[in-house]
Amino acid sequence: MEQIKVGEPTFVLLALESIKYILDKNIEQKQQKAEITELGIHLGDKVSNHLMNTQKLGQNSTGLSQINTIFNFLTGDVWSFIFDRKAQIRKDNITYVLESTNLKIHSYLVCDKSPANDDKLDPALWFIEGIIKGVIACFNLSCDVSSSFKRGNGLENAPSPASSNFEIEYVYTFEITLIDI
What we know:
Blueprint: H1 8-24, H2 29-55, H3 64-83, E1 88-92, E2 95-101, H4 105-109, H5 122-137, E3 142-151, E4 170-179
Helix pairs in contact: 1-2, 2-3, 2-5
């Protein structure tokens, strides 16, 4: 079966419209977060099932090698499918830390990238937390996910802000704790 690929700009625009729809509702922030996270969970589930069906990846065992397979699948196959790049993963005690840079979803949520608007990125983080939860759930596991981001370019010879090629790079961090393994 040929793998269908949705380009990152298309995905980002669809996700953005869904997120904006939820944000425009007259509901409390706690409810907005729950709905946006649930949207991400559904996407993570659907993408994972699609990729697992095309790759014949098993879902049943939960040994250490299976945990490594899950995180390789998340940071490689799923992340590449959705965001057109791989993410980094490392284990920190009982938490897995996933890091990714410059996810385009922030460009659409925050036109003015001044630090005063950084809180407008929270809905994107909630959405991506949901994607991670949806992927983990496909392996019959559950997890807690917390997220943060920081500004930084990560490039030694980055262009200056006056340059037309300058873009602030955001580093997104997702801390994932598996539950009941």
